């Protein structure tokens, strides 16, 4: 399987994490992202004298991808090719390979966003003290739920993300966390 890596918001953080892998893939929800290849990939695959089919496919794959600008059309073409190679259609990919968890995102105005400090990957709130424990208590009420808050990088708001197996549970969880944040103002 593939283990996702969590990093702070922003392409610069995603890129920094992706280059640690032989083939690194990253995308933000807004579509920004790309695929990057390591020096080891260049040495072993792009410069390989071997001509077996797997190496040929990897070489061609790496030639279509534009690592520098993250060409969305090239990336989409690669996705389509990979789906066909593995016997999937776009429709089956959408329905069978990925299920988006019900989630709610809220923006809560605050007097001073700098009072909210998170861990590096922005998934755990360190300050104000005691708030993460309250969030965890609400999250524990729902099976398969998760939630986090983080300050905006540009506005005096705190962003709330809540996810659960049921849309109503995700909405309730987000609202409960929003109340915690509002009480701090």
Automatic annotation (TrEMBL):
Domain Phosphoacetylglucosamine mutase AMG1 residues, every copy: 3-87
Pfam family, one: PGM_PMM_IV
Domain of life, source organism: Eukaryota
TM helices/strands, residue ranges: none
SUPFAM superfamilies listed in its UniProt record: Phosphoglucomutase, C-terminal domain (SSF55957)
Stretches assigned to the Alpha-D-phosphohexomutase C-terminal domain: 125-178
GO biological process: UDP-N-acetylglucosamine biosynthetic process
A molecular function GO annotation: phosphoacetylglucosamine mutase activity
UniProt name for this protein: Uncharacterized protein
Organism per entry: Strongylus vulgaris
